[in-house]
Automatic annotation (TrEMBL):
Keywords: Flavoprotein, FMN, Oxidoreductase
Protein's organism: Umezawaea tangerina
PROSITE patterns: FMN_HYDROXY_ACID_DH_1, FMN_HYDROXY_ACID_DH_2
Keyword Oxidoreductase part of the UniProt annotation: yes
PANTHER family in the record: 2-HYDROXYACID OXIDASE 1, S -2-HYDROXY-ACID OXIDASE-RELATED
Ranges where the FMN hydroxy acid dehydrogenase domain occurs: 9-372
Binding site for FMN: 89-91, 118, 138, 166, 243, 265, 298-302, 321-322
Any GO molecular function: FMN binding
Identification of the protein by name: 4-hydroxymandelate oxidase
Length: 380
């Protein structure tokens, strides 16, 4: 894992995206930090995401004659995003800062990247889209199909630019940190898009249990299948992004059903512990998809070089998750802005040092794993 200086002990502010973690851990209560940082079971997959990214080396090009770099990207509902990046969906952001999702949305708008609002947001979609910028809405299918349809219509009417359906949560993974902490939401934080009468269990602390996991087991649909995804595709006019795909066979089926993009993701190591690192499946998923279908990488992104690695392996872009929450915890909107500004600076530096004038050139880079073998995927 990449070592970074501790900006607290060194007396400086964070000068890289990764350095925000140490500051955020100091300002957050231990139980909330564990909720943000933790993975499932023994956290093997959580650690594997970083190891897999760190072992990918890039082969820079020289004498390309490029006077500068263009970082603009075409993403669903955001044809001129400033970066090949979207903020990942993350629940209950008022846990880490009172302004919560509204602050994150403003920072994403300022950075020119889409913000993905979780269905388990602690602030309503209407108040978030009012902050400006491009908002994607993340959806979990509920046991009550009518309630799911209502949430989709609400997102459409609020002006969301795309729908991101998460498909890797047939049940919530066993997150041992939350179980040990008996984690529950404070009474002033709740899922803004769900029936308030159903939310009492999220605030009930129980030894050895996660109140969030108890609630999702009560609320989320079980036994979802391909017909459910097909009905969702038919029910919305929004671009459809399917998040949580690792197997190329599943990716191909998702594309056949009309998805506009796939997110290669193991849920940041929070679902099946022992699942393959997301980046290890990126190129195989890209090869299984038609050209029209975008592919985004999620899980473990911690800096601009990671974004470049993803592009070199064929990604359209990435989702940035935990670092955004670190910035929000440290300094609200300004903290998220700083994280996104640093990511942009890191990506620009990586592109220039690798001889890439734009993202298409980045996708033509050669990537190699640590033992020198060519990494699969990308354009050669």
């Amino acid at each position: 894992m990449t070592a970074v200086a501790d900006p607290v002990t060194t007396g400086s502010g964070p000068v890289s995206v990764a350095e925000f973690a140490a500051v955020a851990q100091r300002v957050l209560p231990a139980g909330i930090w564990d909720f943000v940082a933790g993975g499932s079971d023994t956290e093997l997959t959580l650690a594997a995401n970083r190891r897999a990214l760190d072992r990918i080396g890039l082969v820079p090009r020289v004498l390309t004659g490029s006077p500068g770099c263009d970082t603009r990207a075409e993403l669903p509902g955001a044809p001129a995003a400033a970066l090949p990046v979207a903020v990942a969906p993350m629940a209950y952001q008022r846990l880490v800062h009172p302004d919560g999702e509204r602050a994150t949305a403003r920072a994403a708008a300022a950075a020119g990247v889409p913000f993905t609002l979780s269905m388990l947001s602690s602030q309503p979609v209407e108040s978030v889209t009012a902050q400006g910028g491009v908002t994607w809405f993340q959806l979990y299918c509920l046991r009550d199909a009518g309630a799911t349809a209502d949430v989709v219509r609400r997102a459409e009417e609020a002006g969301c630019a795309a729908l991101v359906v998460t498909v890797d949560v047939p049940r919530m993974g066993r997150r041992l940190r939350d179980l040990r902490n008996g984690f529950a939401l404070p009474t002033d934080v709740a899922a803004a898009h769900l029936d308030p009468a159903s939310l009492r269990s999220t605030h009930e602390r129980r030894p050895g249990a996660s109140a969030v996991a108890v609630h999702t087991a009560e609320a989320f649909a079980v036994g979802l299948g391909w017909d459910d995804l097909a009905r969702l595709r038919e029910s919305t006019r929004l671009p459809l992004i399917v998040k949580g795909v690792l197997d190329p066979r599943d990716a191909a089926r998702v594309a056949e059903l009309g998805a506009d993009a796939v997110v290669v993701s193991n849920h940041g190591g929070r679902q099946l512990d022992g699942a393959v690192a997301s980046v290890d499946m990126l190129s195989a998923v890209r090869e299984a998809l038609p050209e029209r279908c975008g592919v985004l990488l999620d899980s473990g992104i911690r800096g601009g070089t990671d974004v470049l690695r993803a592009l070199a392996l064929g990604a359209s872009g990435v989702l940035l998750g935990r670092p955004v929450l670190w910035g929000l915890a440290v300094d609200g909107e300004a903290g998220v802005r700083r994280v996104l500004d640093l990511l942009a600076a890191e990506l620009l530096s990586a592109l220039e040092l690798s001889g890439c004038a734009d993202l298409d050139a980045a996708r033509r880079l050669t990537a190699r794993v640590a033992d020198g073998r060519p990494a699969p995927g990308g354009v050669r």
